[in-house]
Each structure stands twice: as structure tokens, then as C-alpha cells.
Amino acid sequence: MKTPIQHKIYEFIRQHIDERCYSPTLQEIAIGIGISPRSFSVISRNVHALVKAGYLAFNERYSRNIQLVSHTLPLVGRIAAGAPIEAVSENDSIDVISLLKGENHFVLEVVGESMKDEGILNGDLVICRRAEKAGEGEIVVALIDQREATLKRISYKLEEMITLIPANADLEPKAYLPHRIQVQGVFVGLVRLNR
Fold first, then answer.
1. Which fold has domain 105-191?
2. Sign of CA pseudo-dihedral 63, 68, 73, 76
3. 172 — alpha (psi -120 to 50), left (phi > 0) or beta?
4. pLDDT tens track for 30-55
5. Active-site option among 44, 114, 116, 133
6. Which residues contact 18 (CB under 8 A, 6 or more apart)?
7. What are the residue ranges spanned by the domains of the chain?
8. Active-site residue (options: 44, 152, 157, 174)
9. Is 114 a catalytic residue?
10. Dist. CA 27–CA 47, nearest whole Å
11. Over 60: is that where the pLDDT of 88 sits?
12. pLDDT digits over 101-126, tens only?
């Protein structure tokens, strides 16, 4: 999270790069946000904090070397996965980092086909939020007997049992005594790379 002065600095740099196609100097940043041009240490300290936080980067090949770090991907429109729809271009972006912000997330690579009917395929990267509890029907990372981890839908409908349900018609759900199952995380999304 940016401090108010870091936000002003970041927005000034972003606007400067948008308008001029190159980054400002520390002196230009100071003047641009309304503080003394001699306040190099204040500007420098906050620029370095923005670099450390992942908002900015330095390109050592240039004298005006401050770069914005993009955490967005362009949202260019919609695509039909069923009947064709009109091709309409959109000019928007998705801030990928904010989708995961403020939560304790991790990524696992899927091995196997047990969740294929949910569209979670072998080789996919699943994004999970660290959690020790999950609601009925959520897809979870479950640790069985402190040894084996699996991605399954969880159910508490059987009395005094936890059921892990695959999303594959060829596989059967399995019920466990509650002490055998430890929820490690809850599925929030996936990334599929075309390898």
C-alpha cells in the first residue's frame, strides 16, 4: 500500500511517462508534486520504496531510468466458447495483482485429471488462498493424513465425515474422518499456459 506522498509520486511519474514517453528526473518529480526541488532525499527514499513494493523499476541502461511496473493485462473483449457472438473490441485492462491483493495466495501445478469436469486440467496452475477452513462445496487443497495433498471439492454432508469429491465421472468421492483431513487452501482461479 502506497503512502500519500508515494501515491503522488507514482501518479506524477505515470502521467509524465504517458505524456512524454520518458521518465522524469527526481528534481522534476519534486517540482511536479509541489515540494522543494532540493528535497532529493525525500523523493529518492520514496521512489526506492515504490521500487521495493513492486510499483516501479530502474532500467540501468538509461539516465532517465524509472519505469512503471505493469501489473495489468489488457482486456480486449469477449470470446464465445459456445455459439459465436459478435466480435467487439474493448479497451480495458485487468489489474492482476489486485485480484490477489490482501490475501495470502499460492500457486500449485495440477498433476492428473481428477478435476477435469470443472475445467481444471493436467498442467494448469491453480491459484489458491491459504485457509484452514472451507465452506460446503468449495474446491480446496486438502492434506490427507499429513502426507498427501489433493485438489477436490469438499463436502460435510455425511455425518462425522468429510468427503472429497473429484470432478471426473471416472472417479468416486472418498469420505474421511475429520481428523484425517486438513484444509490448506481454497481454489480461487487458474492459469493455463499453452506449452
1. Umud Fragment, subunit A (2.10.109)
2. negative
3. beta
4. 999 999 878 789 999 999 999 988 88
5. 114
6. none
7. 4-68, 105-191
8. 152
9. yes
10. 12
11. no
12. 555 777 888 989 999 999 999 988 88
